[in-house]
Amino acid sequence: MSEPAPIDRGKVQRVVDELLGEAGASFLRTGWSPDYLALLQELLLLRTRPAEWQDIVPEYSLIVSTVARKIAEAGGEPHRHALLRDHGFDDVLSGVVRVIDRLSSEQEVAAAYDTLLESAAVRQGPRAADVFTPPSVRAAMLAVLSQGTRPDSLYDPYCRSGELLVDAAALLGPGATVHGAAMRADDVRSSYVNLAVHSVPATVGLRTEFPEPTALGRFGLVLANPPFSMKARGSIAFADGRWPFGPPPARNLDLAWIQHVVLSLADGGRGAVVMPHGAAFRSGRERDIRAALVESGAIDCLISLPGGLFAATSIPVMIWVLRPPQRTERRGVLMVDASELGTRTPRGRRLAAPAVAAIAAAYRAWHADGALTEISACPRTDELRAADYQLVPARYLDSIAPHATVGVDELQRRLSALEHRATQADRRLTEVLKGWTR
């Protein structure tokens, strides 16, 4: 399978549809099965290894035990697949192997792996939040980060299934060092398999607690889609002095991830992090952290994306584009509002290629000669101070286009933001009133 071959996208889609349809019906008869997804990932990895695969294909009568042995030899954990302990599944599993055997090149296997993750995310719905970053979100992140000097090192501190590392490694090309970390053993294995299927040498470590604010290393490119509103656990410390931009609230580590990424950047490095909108406007400690980030010049650009891009939730998200703190004169923070650029498809909403190109063009125009586009603005640092470091892009585009038409999705996003702020104010008022009654 080492010879390059054109990818038959239609065949790849049919293979995945069959794996999640008729061929996988026995595994999915009681609903979605994470174990079945993990088994398919392991089988696709074995499909890229001709010698191991040829040991499996002729042994249909003993296929369960053969697959279990090959998964173990490849570094996987066959015991976690309950279905592999049932030799009554020989006939069923042989059908799955026959379908995967139709993939005729390493490129087709890699394409099938990508399609499988995307299809699985759609099928899982809300549970997909733990496993997958949508392709159009990844494309938007990399469209911005691909501009300028190409870095030679890459890091994802919460690598889920490794999809960000795979896409970024393809951008960087051979020779780049690739590192990832995950907080669950299943994610470590899933990332390793994904990277191996795409022929990306990498190291992925298991981390049981939030990373220390001191960087584990310095990298030219850092990407992350961390869990939103994660609460502190374990021995993480929040004392002043350990967080250069201010200690994050223990109830919400969104801006702790932002700090970790900034601290992980090498000189001249760039980072991109997916964040909920709330991280850009919440008050208290988070406001103070945003202030410190803005004043240091660590925030290069903020990009609002449409809602509905994630299978797990319809809420809109933002991309924070980060850099090491700047010692030179700063021009402000570039704001890009792409919240109206989503395209509806049968499988959900996505950013089509023209939308990704518009985001990249807005970023490129500003950094090339300070030009703005229809979807961008660049408030100066003093304007951000006057706005109390509220960093939602629409706020600043409204100021330069007061008569622009506002769509329903934008109104819903603004209403959601206002409702969230009202909830936060109610909670704060309740705390204050409790203090008065003591």
What key attributes describe this structure?
Rossmann fold; nine-stranded mixed beta sheet; 438 residues; 15 helices; alpha/beta; 2 domains
How does this model look, in words?
Residues 108-399 form the DNA methylase adenine-specific domain. This is DNA methylase adenine-specific domain-containing protein. GO terms for molecular function: DNA binding; N-methyltransferase activity. There is one protein chain. The protein is α/β, with parallel strands linked by helices. It has 2 domains: 9-127; 132-408, Rossmann fold (3-Layer(aba) Sandwich). Helices cover 43% and strands 13% of the residues. It has 15 helices and 11 strands. The chain has helices spanning 9-19, 34-47, 50-56, 63-73, 90-100, 106-124, 135-145, 163-172, 185-197, 254-263, 285-296, 353-369, 381-386, 393-400, 408-437; strands at 153-156, 177-182, 203-206, 219-224, 265-276, 299-304, 317-322, 334-337, 342-345, 348-351, 376-377. The strands form 2 sheets. The chain has a 9-stranded mixed sheet with strand order 3-2-1-4-5-7-6-8-11, with helices on both faces. Strands 9-10 form a two-stranded antiparallel ribbon. Strand 2, helix 9 (185-197) and strand 3 (203-206) form a beta-alpha-beta unit. Helix 2 (34-47) runs antiparallel to helix 6 and helix 7 (135-145) packs parallel to helix 12 (353-369). It is elongated and about 70 Å long. Mean pLDDT is 82; it is low at 400-406.
